[in-house]
Specification:
With about 80 residues, this protein is mainly α. It has helices spanning about 20-25, 25-35, 40-80. The two termini are about 20 Å apart.
């Protein structure tokens, strides 16, 4: 089962207007963020998205986001030990 927007002990940064930043994202990225397990900031998600687009398009961007989320979840689990 895929958990959505769970809380985490990892540091979070907030700046600017996250809703305005979210609304400016491409539809595929907004959809991914809505289903993500962690509460990603639009800024960090957009950075990973752009890196993926440069190397392989939308599919690569989505794969990079999934990989980043898995790595972050692993770090969070280790931090809770």
């Amino acid at each position: 089962m895929h958990q959505r927007n769970i809380s985490t002990r990892l540091k979070r940064r907030r700046a600017g207007d996250p809703m305005r930043e979210f609304d400016a994202l491409p539809p595929e990225l907004r959809r991914w963020l809505a289903e993500a397990s962690l509460p990603w900031s639009p800024r960090s998600a957009r950075r990973i998205w752009r890196q993926g687009l440069k190397t392989g398009g939308v599919d690569e961007a989505l794969r990079r986001l999934e990989s980043a989320e898995v790595a972050t979840l692993k770090r969070d689990r280790l931090a809770q030990l």
